[in-house]
Description:
Layout: H1 38-53, E1 56-58, E2 74-76, H2 110-118, H3 123-127, H4 142-145, H5 148-158, E3 162-166, H6 175-186, E4 189-193, H7 205-210, E5 215-219, E6 232-235, H8 243-253, E7 261-265, H9 273-280, E8 287-289, E9 291-292, E10 305-308, E11 311-314, E12 325-329, H10 334-342, E13 348-352, E14 357-360, H11 365-381, E15 384-389, H12 397-410, E16 414-418, H13 425-428, E17 436-440, E18 457-458, H14 460-467, E19 506-507, E20 514-515, H15 529-532, E21 533-535, E22 542-544, H16 547-554, E23 578-579, E24 582-583
Parallel strand pairs: 3-4, 3-5, 5-6, 7-8, 7-12, 12-13, 15-16, 15-17, 17-18
Antiparallel strand pairs: 1-2, 9-11, 10-11, 13-14, 19-20, 21-22, 23-24
Helix pairs in contact: 5-6, 8-9, 11-14, 12-14
Amino acid sequence: MAAAAAAPGGAAGADRAGSPDPRAAPDRNCSARTEVPERRRCHRARLLAAWFDSGRRTTHTRMHRDHYIFPLAVVPSPPRRGQDFWGRGGRAELPLASVAPQPGSGRRGPRAAMAAAFSSDGEAALRRELCAAVAAAPRNDLDGFYEMGRAAAFIRDGGFRKVALQFPDELLADAVEVAGQMEAATGAKMYVLGDTTYGSCCVDEVAAEHVGAEAVLHYGPACLSPCRKLPVLHIFGRQPLDVGRCTEAFRELYPEQQSRVVVLYDVVYAHAMGELEKQLCPEYPNIIFSRLVCGDPPGPTVPGEEWKFGRQFLVEAAGGLQDYAMFYVGAEGLALTSFMLTWNCCPFSSFNPITGCGRRETLNVNRALMRRLYLVERARDASVVGILVGTLGVAGYLTVLQHLRQLLCRAGKRSYTLAVGKPNPAKLANFLEVDIFVLVACAQNSLLDSSDFYRPVVTPYELELACNPAREWTGNYLTDFRDLLPGACAHVELPPAVPAAEAVPDVSLITGKMCATHLCGPLTSQLPPSTTLACRDQTRALAEISPAASFLESRSWRGLEQQLGQTPISKAVQGRRGIAIAYEDEGCEQP
């Protein structure tokens, strides 16, 4: 039947030069082909605009007969104005013949092409290689890498009978062997936490409490945030560091021996800092090595002392920290980004032990801060805010949740507290009524890149900048939410309420509209009763209106409707089987 099919122009498909199958490459010069209607053309333009607005570009195809468009591959950066998807002028289209069906699929035509674009046999996922952020432990020295002696002494001294072992994904392969050796050495019962509730750098006290653990051994990289309940021992792992090469890189970056430098490092290289200090201190008298500390300072800090991110060091220069440069030992990651935004007055350089190269960090801190300040303006214009719980183990997270609720209440904004685990675009896209999210997490995980999210995600400090008129931008960026709590170094009290008639209006830098910046009183912070309560029917019943309900009411599709009493009763029948691109009752064309 395929051989007898005639081409649209009247000639057989086999006789057409260069096109043995008429379904694979339709004749574009054929006069019998129906042009695309104007409404279809407008629909295509709206689809293209949607893809451009999302910050992506996609190759597309022109389907035979109907001219539907569907994406084949997503690649970064949209084309320039006046160009098509491939950077050329005019309109470019990809013929259907270039979309080859999968071998052995038995399907051809548009449906087979769509199946090839959106489905696979899973072989690519099975062959995918994962790049671990931390190198695996050496198999011949597990005792030294995981510090078995120190861990066993911690368990015996504390008298713990149930201990949880928390491993990151890249070290989870050694969990069984480490747990067996620890049980043999201490006699305590070991439980391996295979998956963390939030980031692997935080201690997962929730999972440890599920098994009734009395203590936690945390392995791998850590944010060193203080915990609330369980005693914790951090074992970072002794990742290899070439101290000689690191010393040479430091000398190349700082040839002047009187340079004032503070040395920061990833926790996995803490074991080698003593040797590096012996190499550099005789040559550089003004060098300062930070120390790892877990928990809050025992008392008020002295002038010039820094106690952040689990690092402690004392600056003795008269000009303070701004007279120093920062040298970081470790790979590029969230820790380095947090350091650079927090100490943005200091120039940074780093040494990557994996590549053995030192460099001056070229991250445009001002550009990054401008991006964060733009999110502050978005938070100022938001009316509904979602508070994301990103940690359940860091001390003070309940207090900061209550603080944020009070702040949003005083600012006249509605808030919803959401516990969704590790946030991702798919999860947060379910809450369409939320204008912006604020993430309560540890200092390293709070800086979430929300460029791929449907709504922006800000930090508690950025939300305070947006809603607290008494807090002003001073150039110091805060990533630790505990600094905002009462009694902390950066706490700012909320100003008293101002009557609406006396409030000074402000202009939004995003929308250009007038907006109020004053705070309401603690007892009158909710919306006025005239808008919160409404008459539902003629019986004068009152119903409360929430932003989520109002948003759902404005949507054209609100989910499945019950329609009680309106649907006729019928017997159950066999429905369609298969997937959307190929139901069993549709039939497939044979090659």
